[in-house]
Amino acid sequence: MPIFMWVILSVIIIQRLVELVIARSNEQWMKQRGAIEKGKQHYKWFIIVHTLFFLSLIAEIIFRNQQSISLNYVLFTAFIITQIGRIWCIATLGRFWNTKIIVAPQFDVIKRGPYKYVKHPNYIIVGIELFVIPSLFGAWLTAIVFPILHALLLYVRIPAEEKAVYGH
Fold first, then answer.
1. Which residues, 6 or more positions from 111, have their beta carbon under 8 angstroms from its beta carbon?
2. Domain boundaries, position 60
3. Of 49, 63, 76, 95, which has the most beta carbons under 10 Å away?
């Protein structure tokens, strides 16, 4: 695989690690203000699936050993659009953005930015990313399996989040 593709993959991994640091900081900030975590029992599955996503992606890239792969500009554009959406979600939620379900009743639910139009825009974006990112690298098995696993996780996550945030 060409070096520029490894650079793109490295940037994605670094971005996700930085997001985990931001989420941890936001979690501490919210808990200092009385927030509590809900849905702990399923969170480990998010960690497992997202870790396996990157391991699967890298393994498939290495296994396929595609030296002649070139950048697909349509997929790369889709990737850039998802990153803009991802940043928009994180920026809109600010200190309330997290990878966990953390709620504090004294704070209002944010209904601006992408949340004005869709209740869970970040989950949609992640689902698209889980297809687009591996597709960029020709990792078609990863591109098929992980959006399905993401949808299965959301089958548990969204009701848990709805109950924690809205009480239903």
1. none
2. 3-166
3. 49
52, amino acid identity: L
Q: Which residues contact 98 (CB under 8 A, 6 or more apart)?
A: 23, 26, 27, 30
CATH number (domain holding residue 44): 1.20.120.1630
Mean pLDDT for each 10-residue chunk of the chain (168 residues)?
Answer: 87 96 97 93 94 96 83 95 97 96 90 95 97 96 98 96 86
* Whole-number Å distance between alpha carbons of 130 and 111: 26
The encoded tokens of residue 105 equal 């009743």
**Interatomic CA distance for residues 158 and 109, integer angstroms:** 15
What is the number of domains present in the chain? 1
